[in-house]
Amino acid sequence: MPPPDTIAAVKGFRDVLPDESRRWRALEEAAERVFTCYGFGEIRLPVVERTELFARSLGETTDIVEKEMYSFADRDETGLTLRPEATAGVVRAYLESGLAQSDPSARLYYRGPMFRRERPQRGRYRQFYQIGAEVLGRDDPLADAELLVMLDRYLAGVGARATRLELNSVGDRVCRPVYRERLREFGRAHLAGLCPDCHRRLERNPLRMLDCKVESCQEIMARAPVAADSLCEGCRAHLAQVRTLLEQERVAYAMNPRLVRGLDYYCRTAFEVVAGGLGAQNAVGGGGRYDGLVAALGGPDVAGVGFALGLERLAMVAPEVEAEAPGPTALILPLDAQAVGPALALATRLRDGGLAVGLEPAGRSLKALLRIADRRHARLAVILGEEELRARRATVRDLVQHQDRRQVLPLDAGGPELVRALQAMIGGGQ
Ligand code: HAM
């Protein structure tokens, strides 16, 4: 417990300490490796955008826009918002940077913090991190399939095998209005059992009723008509082709006819990656097609498809990624005050040469220092005492193998020579 008068982090905002961030980095590096093979380049986006960008793209009646955005007025009264997601920002950048002309079928990936004022719980935070990928300018089912193959291979590569890909089509501007009307009729017939929020959704955005978290609503909506039965010919053919390609590449998926996403920009393909063992927050990632979004933001009528994974949740379902903390290769132990300067000089030369080196303060017994070296999981202890300084040779003890063997390191050697000598000691001991 922290002392009572310290300042705590804001509710829903958390620190990511080295044990966790090391695993995040492994997940990010794996994403970079895999996504690069599929032709994606990284885009770094601002975390703040104009509020209207999200209001216009995510949908005025979504939970995010209605109640979860961190919005504020800038000093000149411009309405700004901490981004709740990145797809809208990617589309804005695509239009603003001229990519829409120079590289109309751009493939962009991103990572970084997103902000939603949701009720915090395990796996749900107010600042959370996503890794996402977007393909612009492609309306063919091959683009959806390629993206899903990439997602599948990435998840397998990081060991997130206990995840399931759920797929649906939410229709397009031709058939969605028909489905919306069917849902409205169903909702009206079951009005008495629906929560006040769903009463509102019924008129404004009936698809949202399928996403309601209230148990009694869920029970009713489990019997509601599904989108698949209202799809137009174009949407049906698109979905069929995506499925054929996924099956060809042996991407496992399950159709979920009730899958609707929490954002309004989706069209046709919609999907989620879900995992058991995460409790209520079981979506590790989600995405889909957003063919009307670029036009809605003032651009040409260009299609898009993408996904985002939540890093916190991904780290929970890919537990074996880089779980071990790497100890320093060598821990330098100055025994007294005279050894402090030479110890720092030695550490700097080794670190300049790319070795992970720890350095302890002077003033403790050799026995105490060796105990520390053990706790830090150091491979080698480099001891610098009076005798060593006189002989200009540090004593090196291998803490993992041949623990009784002493070797020496010439203190006046150049950096590269020192690094080679230590590496030989590790290599020779194996
Ligand atoms: P989303 O489903 O809202 O989609 O978020 C994607 C993932 O972000 C979720 O599956 C979850 O893992 C994580 N996530 C969302 N909210 C939280 C939270 N409060 N705490 C922790 N993790 C969270 C999007 O954001 C779309 N932009 C995805 C997309 C890209 N669609 C097309 N392209």
How would you describe the overall organization of this protein?
By secondary structure, the chain is an alpha+beta fold. It is built from 16 helices and 16 strands. Helix 1 runs antiparallel to helix 6 (141-157) and helix 6 (141-157) runs parallel beside helix 10 (233-248). The radius of gyration is 28 Å and the shape is elongated. Residues 85-87, 116, 118, 124-125, 128, 130, 132, 134, 262, 283-288, 290, 306-308, 310, 312-313 line the site of histidyl-adenosine monophosphate. Histidyl-adenosine monophosphate binds at residues 85-87, 116, 118, 124-125, 128, 130, 132, 134, 262, 283-288, 290, 306-308, 310, 312-313.
What is the strand and helix layout of this fold?
Layout: H1 18-37, E1 41-42, E2 48-50, H2 51-58, H3 63-68, E3 70-73, E4 79-82, H4 87-96, H5 99-102, E5 107-115, E6 127-136, H6 141-157, E7 163-169, H7 176-189, H8 196-204, H9 215-221, H10 233-248, E8 254-255, E9 269-275, E10 283-289, H11 293-296, E11 304-310, H12 311-317, E12 330-334, H13 340-352, E13 357-359, H14 366-375, E14 380-384, H15 386-391, E15 393-398, E16 406-410, H16 415-429
Parallel strand pairs: 1-5, 7-8, 12-13, 12-14
Antiparallel strand pairs: 2-4, 3-4, 5-6, 6-11, 7-9, 9-10, 10-11, 14-15, 15-16
Bound molecules: histidyl-adenosine monophosphate.
